[in-house]
Write a structure and sequence with these properties.
The chain is α+β, with helices and mostly antiparallel strands. The chain has a single domain, classed as GTP Cyclohydrolase I, domain 2 (2-Layer Sandwich). It is built from 4 helices and 4 strands; from the N terminus they run βαβαααββ. Helix 3 crosses helix 4. The radius of gyration is 16 Å and the shape is elongated.
Length: 121
């Protein structure tokens, strides 16, 4: 077992509870940690045997650009659903999403959530 980590994928998207957020948009940072059996690609040195993190990035990019969501929890759930539906070999995935400088009435660097899902659950 091992981990694949992709940190601080940056997207500009139009998610948020307030109408202004869905019009103006905001910057989001996404982190993904995938737990998988890495022994086959470690031995073969072949992408066909690995969990392809480029594919994971493309799935996340597609979901971030897709329909607008009011809540970070909804975005994370959609991304996790897509990762498990479209990719093989993921045993467990943890996804974090941060909205940068959210409109909360004062200076705030970010607000975020983290969700974890295991294969088959």
């Amino acid at each position: 077992m091992g981990k694949i980590v992709i940190e601080e994928m940056e997207f500009y998207a139009f998610h948020g509870h307030y109408q202004e957020e869905q019009i103006v948009g905001n910057r989001f940072l996404v982190d993904l940690e995938i737990e998988a059996n890495l022994s086959a690609p470690a031995q073969s040195d072949q992408l066909a045997d690995a969990v392809n993190y480029q594919q994971a990035y493309q799935i996340i990019k597609k979901e971030m650009r897709r329909k607008k969501s009011n809540l970070l929890e909804n975005i994370a759930s959609r991304i996790l659903d897509a990762l498990f539906a479209e990719m093989e070999g993921i045993e467990k995935a943890t996804l974090s999403i941060r909205k940068m400088h959210p409109p909360m009435g004062g200076p705030i660097k970010s607000v975020g959530i983290t969700m974890t899902r295991k294969y088959g659950s």
